[in-house]
Amino acid sequence: MEAFIRGLPKAELHVHIEGTLEPEMMVEMARRNQVAVRFASVEDVRAAYEFTDLQSFLDIYYEGAGVLRTEQDFFDLTYAYLERAARDRVRRAEIFFDPQTHTERGVAFETVITGIHRALELGRDELGISSGLIMCFLRHLSAESAHETLEQALPFVELLLGVGLDSSEIGNPPEKFDAVFAQARRAGLLVVAHAGEEGPPQYVWAALDVLHARRIDHGVRSEDDADLLQRLSDEHIPLTMCPLSNIKLRVFPTMADHNLKRLLDRGLLVTINSDDPAYFGGYVADNYLAVTKALGLERADLVKLATNSFNAAFLRVEDRRAFLDELNRYVVAFE
Ligand code: ADE
Ligand code: ZN
Question: Does the structural domain 2-334 have CATH classification 3.40.50.720?
Answer without folding.
Answer: no
